[in-house]
Specification:
Lipocalin, alpha+beta, 9 strands
């Protein structure tokens, strides 16, 4: 009799353990697991080609002599810039060489004489080469200062093309883009040798320095 009671107790304990284990398993399996999936938003790429406002666009020039200097402007005849999400990626400009002016000479006759000389074969020979071109070939956006770039371009003057590198600033202003660049060239590389002491002797204080500063300023339409 005693053995039957012990056996019955063992059976009851075993059944209780199994029922308890089954309840825990059911509770575990009915638990809902929530997983959050993060979706990355891809910004659409916007490539834009914008034309230059030729009414306001120009290149300022500065040429220095041993004694004195002259400065003026030349107009941009046409041009475009290409951007990708507001960042400059390329561009090209045509310069109207016949539009060259001198801003520092107030004497009308002297001013006219200088412009005539600049238009001649001694300098730009504008009747044979009425335009110059600038074509951007490489764009490096700088990170240390906002809206700044280091550009490489092909500059063609008098039918001669040379690669130049120069700093530039390009930014978005409302719905348009504005850009400025400062370029220094050795004019003799484009066969503009008049008054250069590298090619002519005895010039003294009449010598004209080889370096010419070009300050480009433009806005898009």
């Amino acid at each position: 009799m005693k053995q039957k009671l012990i056996l019955s107790g063992v059976v009851i304990l075993a059944l209780s353990y199994m029922l308890n284990l089954n309840a825990q398993t059911t509770k575990t399996t009915t638990k809902t697991k929530t997983t959050t999936t993060k979706t990355n938003t891809v910004k659409p790429v916007s490539v834009k080609v914008s034309s230059i406002n030729t009414t306001t666009g120009y290149i300022g020039w500065l040429a220095k002599k041993v004694v004195g200097q002259h400065n003026g402007k030349v107009k941009l005849q046409d041009g475009t810039v290409t951007t990708k999400n507001g960042v400059l990626t390329g561009g090209s400009f045509t310069v109207d060489m016949k539009s060259i002016t001198c801003d520092d000479l107030t004497d009308i006759d002297y001013n006219k004489k200088l412009i005539g000389h600049l238009n001649s074969t001694d300098f730009f020979n504008v009747y044979e080469y009425p335009v110059a071109t600038i074509k951007i070939t490489k764009v490096l956006k700088l990170t240390k200062k906002v809206n700044t770039y280091n550009l490489t371009a092909d500059l063609t003057i008098k039918g001669i093309t040379k690669s130049i590198t120069f700093p530039a600033t390009f930014k978005t202003v409302g719905k348009i883009f504005e850009g400025v660049a400062k370029i220094t060239i050795d004019r003799t590389l484009w066969d503009i040798k008049y008054g250069s002491s590298n090619f002519f002797e005895g010039l003294g204080d009449k010598a004209i320095k080889n370096d010419v500063e070009l300050n480009v300023s433009f806005a898009t339409n």
